[in-house]
Amino acid sequence: MKPLTNQPNGRLVRGLSGLALGLSGNTDVKLIILDRDGVINEDSDAYIKSLDEWIPLPGSIEAMARLSKAGWRIAVATNQSGLARGYFTQEILEAMHARLAELVAEQGGQVELIRYCPHGPDDGCDCRKPRPGLYRQIADYFGLDSLSGVPTVGDSLRDLEAGVAVGCKPYLVRTGKGNKTANQALPTGTLIFDNLAAVVDSLLEP
Ligand SMILES: O=P(O)(O)OC[C@@H](O)[C@H]1O[C@@H](OP(=O)(O)O)[C@@H](O)[C@@H](O)[C@@H]1O
Ligand SMILES: [Mg+2]
Ligand SMILES: [Zn+2]
After folding, report:
1. Which of 6, 39, 74, 155 could form a disulfide with 178 if both were Cys (CB 3.0 to 4.6 A apart)?
2. Residues with active-site annotation
3. Contact (CB, 8 A) for 117 and 125
4. Are the C-beta atoms of residues 177 and 43 closer than 8 Å to each other?
């Protein structure tokens, strides 16, 4: 089932997935917002420029499927300045996201929404993290007037800052750039875990 994803002009392209779920704007919604590179898949300082370079981190796909099967809704919020820099095409990016959705679906889970910022650092958009534009788009999609308390998982400070700006609960993972980020001043209340699987374990423990 293809996730919903966005076009560079920000228009949402409806994939095969179902209708937007009209979740009420309350904080007990089981929604999680994940960063992509360094949380779900390996990251590289040379960017992830092809489907071959898009390699899931150990346990991340299984963790997403476990969370999804437990009733959580999964959204991804990712900066993809490589598009603006000309390192890869939108077609390649969408192929990575289709692969992600496919792998999670094979394990019985679903990635419902992937929102990315296609812009470069100097484009002045509102969707490049640490700005919270992607998070607002995700809240709109799920019909939420608040993301207060919604867990967001990142490996970079900007991921946490973007989520905290709209009330999310910040989780840092040590994968990707996370070990380095852990030495920076983090948003109050940030919880630190080794990887996404450990975050999911903590969210699912009774
Ligand atoms: O972690 P998410 O948001 O999913 O994606 C990050 C990537 O878009 C790239 O973001 C770049 O930052 P700049 O966009 O050049 O500042 C660099 O950090 C790259 O190493 C990284 O692969
Ligand atoms: Mg990242
Ligand atoms: Zn943007």
Report:
1. 155
2. 35, 37
3. yes
4. yes
Report pLDDT digits (tens) over 51-98: 999 999 999 999 999 999 999 999 999 999 999 999 999 999 999 999
- Counting ligand 1 atoms within 8 A of each CB, the residue from 6, 34, 37 with the most, and so the one to mutate, is 37
Domains and CATH numbers, the chain: 5-204 (3.40.50.1000)
Q: Which amino acid is present at 51?
A: L
Ligand 1 binding residues, C-beta < 6 A: 35-38, 43-45, 47-48, 78-82, 121, 156
CA of 105 to the centre of ligand 3 (A): 28
**For residue 162, how far is the Cα from the chain centroid?**
12
Confidence (pTM): 0.91
Q: Looking at this predicted complex, what is its ipTM?
A: 0.98
